[in-house]
Amino acid sequence: MSRIRLVFIAVPAALLLAACSSPQNSATVTATTPAVSAPTTSAPTSAAAAATAAATAASATGLSGHWSGQYSGAYQGTFSLSWQQSGSKLSGTIKISAPPNSFPIHGTVRNGTIRFGTVGSLAITYSGSVSGSSMSGSYQVHAPNGAAGGPWSAAKAS
Model pTM? Predict the structure, then answer.
């Protein structure tokens, strides 16, 4: 019985040693290793792929910071935003000039589209688009006497 165990242990061990020392297998390992690591070390194959990768990386935190803007239409004035972005989620504070007040604000940004809102004495929602260090769109004030709104725009201050 111990002779059979020796054969079961010796044969796999011999095959393992033969496989490890075979020049044919080492060539296979060498050829396989670069193929696995090549995508992480090579440059993107096109300018479009590079631009998409850069936009994706920047979009994760690109809106974080301070923004200054203006709104017109049913109400007119200026505002400043202080954003913190985590992925597609936004949170921060908006300070509007008329009526002068600050509110907590939350929103989302996906594929260049931004939506955010605040709840104070009036609920205000903003929607629009983002491109680099500027954004614009329309706002809607949901008041007890009806809804009103107009255009808005903002630029990144820092």
Answer: 0.59
